[in-house]
Amino acid sequence: MVDGNDKVMLAHGGGGQLSNDLIRKYILPNVGNDVLNQLGDSASLELESGLICFTTDSYVVKPLFFNGGDIGKLAVCGTMNDLAVAGARPVALSLALIIETGLELEILERILKSIGETARQNNISIVTGDTKTVEAGSADKIFITTAGIGVRVSGAVPGMDKIKSGDKIIVNGTLGDHGMTIISQRKGISFESKLKSDCAVLWPLIEQMLMNCGGDVRFMRDATRGGAAATLNEIACATGMNVEICEKALPINPTVRAAADMLGFDVLDIANEGKFIAVVSPGCAVECLRICKNHPLGKDAAIIGEVGEVSKRGLVELITRIGGRRVIQLPYGRELPRIC
Amino acid sequence: MVDGNDKVMLAHGGGGQLSNDLIRKYILPNVGNDVLNQLGDSASLELESGLICFTTDSYVVKPLFFNGGDIGKLAVCGTMNDLAVAGARPVALSLALIIETGLELEILERILKSIGETARQNNISIVTGDTKTVEAGSADKIFITTAGIGVRVSGAVPGMDKIKSGDKIIVNGTLGDHGMTIISQRKGISFESKLKSDCAVLWPLIEQMLMNCGGDVRFMRDATRGGAAATLNEIACATGMNVEICEKALPINPTVRAAADMLGFDVLDIANEGKFIAVVSPGCAVECLRICKNHPLGKDAAIIGEVGEVSKRGLVELITRIGGRRVIQLPYGRELPRIC
Question: Are residues B178 and B248 in the same domain?
Fold first, then answer.
């Protein structure tokens, strides 16, 4: 308890004694380490090289806790994954909290514990941070922004410009789990208990793919907001090549499919938090798939399609179960607010 | 205008077509550059060295626009200053936006323009970013989180552990300008027009001090939330040495003093956004002061006190105009919510 109160107060963000209390009693015990504990204006780091990747994401997911994760775990996984898919080993995270006055300190602590645990399990440190408070009604409980620094793995620089016609498209497991878990929980739908977010740090699997297949891994992206459809359309749009996906090959958890059908969503549009779309050379596709299937993060992996020829305008087409073709468009955006 | 609407919609944060529109029509034209325009999951950077500083801050200032700046300018200056006071040349920023549905796109654009201008004027690039939207009532217009990377200037590693008894304390100009500007504007007080935030990037001045005085600059901190009182107390608390400040020597704008007196604030507790407290060796203090006074960012600089002996518990004491002594405590925290 801070100041005889069990809720966050506006003064906890004022930069004075109460801010200090919040940091020392709640933040450092849960996410602290030698660097963060110095409480400097910035963290001093000695990286093995100046070739780095840098990324940031804000997390506003609702509800804060869901089957398979919470906003804290998401804030660590999501930002680490943005580094990993760029071919960088994640090395440090920042953590900025915007907290609504009145948030129970017990909830804040659960979230901080989750951040600390996820970071420790994945060998990454929160090295710098900030805490702001706003009045009740000026935020929705808590928003978290993490930024991450990763060091480039030598030799592997995946990028859209590496993609060639004929390349294979791999996904490391079932699609739509995160988004359908959140939306079902929000709507209080009964199959909720069978749904579980795929929220996970992908680096251990990606590192194996890069070590074994190097430059044959042309491009990777984690299929979060906008789902696989958004990622595939970005590939088609940036390369000007058609992308062909085979419906039969898409790994989808049956409960996720049922929930999506019932609620009127296309699973391809639904956010994932532990899935990447990888474009790999045709010669390396089977090896990449083998590496995925031998790893807990990729046991349901599949080759779901391939990159086609250059066309006037790159299109994503789905070959349906009965052999028809359907264009998969970039989702409009109103599918699932506050999914991450 | 996006989608026939002049306000931000929830779907602008959905990761689909509308997110794309917002990024391409508003964000890239104002803050874009070669790296950001690639819209990768993370930005790839080649730093001159792996010895870096890393920092983050969220900005929730209210009102969004104030005399001397706005939330966008603040988000660039504040994070760059956290790198600068650690002795690091700022090289890259991330930009994460949390936007309340219904925010006028015109306001968003003004803020983005300000971010872009401040970054360009200070030779720094926004290299990676994120945009989230939340429902009306779930945030207060816009919150901005920036993270920054800086490269350590060789030879200069200022830190609390370098501080010695007898060191001089310098501030680079008048105290309390930012905080009193915000609070006066919020309260609609008439001297508002004479008050102006000191919001500025301090690196150009700090670089000169480090180049000329190197290790004689023992420690620096920008005196933001909690004001000079918080920074001085952090020094006393971390070193266990007393800190003595001379009231006569404190540079304070007369309008700021009048506003603080009228509203019942101690100027020492009030946030600054363009002021550092530097602890320098006695032998270098005059030279540091000269460098400050010759620079636009330090023309009102002053030596305001010195570090005393080790004591049972480091205390900050003010020698008043009439020769009395008053202990300056760490502010409690409820002085000025949402000041930055």
Answer: yes
Rounded (5°) CA angle B102-B17-A84: 105
Quote the domain boundaries for residue A136.
Answer: 10-152
Distances (CA, A) of A59 to A54, A69, B132: 17, 13, 8
For residue B137, the chain A residues in CB contact (below 8 A) are 137
What span, in angstroms and rounded, lies between the C-alpha atoms of B294 and B117? 25
Residues A4-26 have pLDDT tens digits of: 579 999 989 887 888 889 999 99
C-alpha A330/C-alpha B17 separation (Å) is 6
Are B332 and A14 within 8 A, CB to CB? yes
Contact between chains at A54 and B95 (C-beta distance less than 8 A): no
Residue A86 CB-density burial (10 A; 0-12 exposed, 13-18 middle, 19+ buried): buried
Q: Is the domain of A183 the same as that of A318?
A: yes
β-pairing, B241-246 vs B316-319, is: parallel
Those residues of chain B that have pLDDT short of 50 are 1-3
For the segment A203-214, what is each residue's pLDDT rounded down to a tens digit?
Answer: 999 999 999 999
Q: Indicate the residue among A152, A175, A206 that finishes a domain.
A: A152
- Which of A2, A37, A42 has the highest number of chain B CBs within 10 A, making it the mutation to test binding with B? A42
CB neighbours of residue B236 within 10 Å: 24
E strand residue ranges, chain A: 43-46, 51-59, 65-66, 69-70, 88-100, 125-134, 142-152, 168-171, 217-222, 241-246, 276-280, 302-310, 316-319, 325-327
Please give the pLDDT value at position B157. Answer: 85
Number of CB pairs < 8 Å for A and B? 292
Q: Give how far A306 is from chain B: nearest CA, Å.
A: 21
Are A216 and A232 in contact, with CB atoms under 8 Å apart?
no
Domain end marker among A97, A130, A152: A152
